[in-house]
Amino acid sequence: MIEELIQCGDYQQALTMLEDMDDESVRYLRLVCLVGMGEYQQAKTEGAWAKANAKETYYDVVSMYVTTLKELGEFEEAINILIEELSMPYIPYQYETLFNTAYDEVLLDKQEANYEVESKNQIFSIEEISQVLKNKECNEDLLYMALDQLQQLNVRMIIPVIQDYLMNPQNHFFAKTLLIEIMIDQQIDEDIQVEKFGRYYDINPSYMALVLEQTQYAETLKYLQNGIEDENPSLFEQCVEYLEYTLYALYPQDIYEEDCHVLAAAIHYYVATLQSMDIDLDDLEVMYYCDKFEIEQQILALKQIEC
């Protein structure tokens, strides 16, 4: 009967039937009703007590309590609770997924609420960013917001978390590269391992150049300028964008100077064909002083990045 009333949205009627505060199921259902009615202050008061005394309904109570705090704009307390729960040695999978999603939502709400009144580096703490990196199914917008703010914080505090992130094949190459660049900027003198496209690299950020400060960027750019900048400026700009995308994807893979002309030719061909432009590999052989077979192999490599 009570569950039916709640499902129908008749929270007030259901609440009048939920009087036994010694029953933890009653305490939980009262939270559901109070949140459904928008009575968040009362839900917070009852929720704190319900959380402290919950056993079988513990995770459900925590979920409702966090929702209450989020609606009240008390983001820090909600975040602290979620971090504490997600750091536990064991948490049922369905609740881990629920809490990870809630964590992303609370951080986004906090960012939106504080963006106008706080400087960017004050919105997320290093602990909050660390939790974002640990989240296996993190919201992409939130991830890049966190990485943007990590530039202003002391990255040394979460090196082990970053190391785990860099070695996870499921994490996106672009985010991995941004993390490496942040460590380069902060001159992190530590041995770090990175996984990219099934290959593993040992790096030390303090000895590395930023992606677009590498020699291979300047060299490949020079070949593209000589090949197409004057003839087709629009195609040239697109090729430069794709060159930067490629280098960010492959980093920290070495691209030798003697291979830059092949990379330029492959990018020229690949971007042109994406624009439905007719282009002959024989012409590219002459334009970029390289073998057609080498260009074809590099084109295949570029396509793998897109997969």
How would you describe what is shown here?
This protein is mostly helical. Helix content is 65%, strand content 3%. The chain has helices at 2-7, 11-16, 24-37, 40-53, 58-71, 75-86, 93-114, 126-134, 140-150, 159-167, 173-185, 215-229, 233-250, 260-274, 281-288, 292-306, and strands spanning 192-196, 199-203. A hairpin with a 2-residue loop joins strand 1 (192-196) and strand 2 (199-203). A two-stranded antiparallel ribbon has the order 1-2. It has a domain at 211-306: Cyclin A, domain 1 (Orthogonal Bundle). This is TPR repeat-containing protein. It comes from Coprobacillus cateniformis.
Largest sheet: 2 strands, antiparallel
Mean pLDDT over the full residue set = 88
Structural class: mainly alpha
The total count of strands amounts to 2
CATH superfamily of the domain at 211-306: Cyclin-like
- The strand order across the widest sheet is 1-2
* CATH class category of the domain at 211-306: Mainly Alpha
How many DSSP H or I helices? 16
By CATH, the topology of the domain at 211-306 is: Cyclin A, domain 1
Rg calc: 26 Å
As residue ranges, the low-confidence spans are: none
How does the overall form come out from the CA principal axes? elongated
Please describe the topology of this protein.
Blueprint: H1 2-7, H2 11-16, H3 24-37, H4 40-53, H5 58-71, H6 75-86, H7 93-114, H8 126-134, H9 140-150, H10 159-167, H11 173-185, E1 192-196, E2 199-203, H12 215-229, H13 233-250, H14 260-274, H15 281-288, H16 292-306
Helix pairs in contact: 3-4, 3-5, 4-5, 5-6, 5-7, 6-7, 8-9, 9-11, 12-13, 12-14, 13-14, 14-15, 14-16
